[in-house]
């Protein structure tokens, strides 16, 4: 016969077990729903490109009976000097749209950093939309003509094409969500510390970049101020000194995103070969999720040491 001391355990165990199971299920369901929304957002650039391209192709095919064949596709001044068949124009727009959609689908690859996904989707969407929105009214203006040599050139169509392409690129970039890296990075270089705590603000300069340290933030600024990365000092994990070869490590010069090797996922300014400051900091994922920014600057060792010293002094 069971003892009295076991009865309370038997009564309370199912309640405790159900409560313990329900909480993770709720959290898991919420996480899965958020993950689903993010995945659906990743499809927006490709769907937007496909919608605009499909609309342009549909318009030209609808106008086919009213268009001369061939149609004018290029002008020298105001005189047409390049022609193509209607089917040829439709094929070109279909290829441009297809390539744009294919490139936009790179955003579905999780290994690609979110900033690279945004840039890729934005550029692909901009290019495809610009070509389609430019060509569609140019072809439409030739309806009713017997000879495409009489086709007028309307320069104003460039403006709506630029506006539409820029809006589409902005929407594509917005649609790609930021996501935490979910990774903790081990040091890949030396982690120096300055002998004395610097008196901020302090600046270090490189080719096309300025690194500024003040009492609250570490700021990377480059491309004439077009790109600014501000990292709260409280989120800085450490600053390292690493040696960088722009072409071998990043595939080129300027503002780059590492795609492979020890700099995979690293973002920053690599204007020349030499020592760089690599700042490791926590991102939106919390302590267990880190991002890395880099800049090749003069006296990178002093810059990394100053960041570490000021961080430790806080």
Structure characterization notes:
The protein is of the alpha+beta class and 314 residues long. It folds into two domains: 43-175; 202-313, PH-domain like (Roll). 44% of the residues lie in helices and 23% in strands. The protein has seven helices and eleven strands. The chain has helices at residues 7-42, 44-62, 86-104, 114-140, 158-175, 246-250, 300-313; strands at residues 71-76, 79-84, 202-206, 209-213, 217-222, 227-232, 236-244, 254-257, 267-270, 274-283, 286-296. A five-stranded mixed β-sheet has the order 7-10-11-9-8. A four-stranded antiparallel β-sheet has the order 3-4-5-6, with helices on one face. Helix 2 runs parallel beside helix 4 (114-140) and helix 2 (44-62) packs antiparallel against helix 5. The longest helix is centred in the N-terminal third of the chain and has 36 residues, at 7-42. The protein is elongated. It starts with 6 loop residues before the first helix and ends with a helix.
Given the structure, what is the number of helices? 7
Our Rg estimate from Cα atoms comes to 28 Å
Low-confidence stretches: 1-25
Largest sheet: 5 strands, mixed
**What series of H and E elements makes up the topology?**
HHEEHHHEEEEEHEEEEH
| Number of strand segments | 11
Structural shape = elongated
**Strand fraction:** 15-25%
Domains, number: 2
Task: Note the gap between the termini.
Answer: 64 Å
**Secondary structural class:** alpha+beta
Q: How confident overall, as mean pLDDT?
A: 84
How is the largest sheet built, in terms of strand order?
Answer: 7-10-11-9-8
Percent range of helical residues? 40-55%
